[in-house]
Amino acid sequence: MAILATLAMALVTPGPTSRADDVLPTAATVKSLLDGVRDDLDAERPGAARDRFVKAIGALTTLVSAEPPPAAARGLLDRARTLRDDLELQGVQVDAIVLPTLPRAAAKPKGESAAKPGKGPVGTARKGGGGKPAGPGVKGPASTAVSFVEQVAPILVRHCGGCHVAGRRGDFQFTSYDTLMKTGMVQKGAGADSRLVEVIRTGDMPRGGGKVAPDECALLVTWINEGAVFDGADPLVSLQNPGANVAASASPAGAVKLEPGDVSFAFEVAPVLVKQCGGCHDAMQPDGNLSMVSLESLLRGGANGAPIVAGEGAASLLVRKLKGRDIDGQPMPLGKTPLSAEVIATIEKWVDQGGKLDLLTAQTPLATVAAAGRARSLSHADLLVARFEA
User: Fold this and answer.
1) pLDDT tens-digit readout, 218-235
2) Which of 123, 142, 240, 345 has a CA that sits 20 to 30 A from residue 322's CA?
3) Average pLDDT of the chain?
4) Phi, psi torsion values for 294, nearest 5 degrees
């Protein structure tokens, strides 16, 4: 009897699987842990941030292993990768922390489609047309297409402008449609899967308590699903004025012959720009969206407009920045010894004379133009010595 009683007790005794500790974590739990990691990092508590990050990854690993994984898993994974990088930047050892991977079948959140609108028969209205053909040569309503210039760019500037358009917070900046697309944040035709949308939906961005309204986020998704089309005149102009049209005359038609007394761009101006401005203005994401890779890109201008007004040296932004007069922000070159009055006067004179190009083309890299200008200025003997020393 004693044996039977023991067996009966064993049958009704709860097993270890009934413990509360075995409850699966939710996406909200993981998000809360990741939020805590960010808070610890912002408060300069790297040790606490690492401990909390380890817990978050443990919970995220369990979440991702669910069948199927929740729709939020991909966005949480991307946020975890960002936090891991931030931890490493603060000197935290993260090599032993392995992030889980999402099964390929779960790459697209459940219930969200990345299908491109307008995939149906030609001439079919995408919205508001009841699916009826619009007729030969007749386009659907213009309101169905999201405008980058009128709708998308203002959202990006409003919510991202302070840190990632006008500034380079976290060494990340997109100042134009062109640079935005080069970041990889936008995956054409896949709005829900684009990182730009994911960092918004997971709450990782924008920082500082700001929020992107649901209707604004939906607009971004629609724009990306439609192919992330640019509807302005120039994809390289600033997001702060994406509809601007760069005048065709802004780029010289070609090199011209210099008259006595003319300043040589190739020999006197280009070398200064390469040496003094190249570090900040020749990258894929140049400061202020002002690229000085070539004369053409220089004349195109950046976030503050055209730096050169041909024939008006004193009024040109480039000259005013070099002089440190009548400007917003810092004088140039930033963090370097100011240029001599003589050098600035030469650049100003070049602008006064029309900003002419005297060698090669406006699309030629400034470094190449400067080298050609130096070579032309040397005698044959000096040129042979220079080539030998190089």
Assistant:
1) 999 999 999 899 998 888
2) 240
3) 77
4) -145, 170
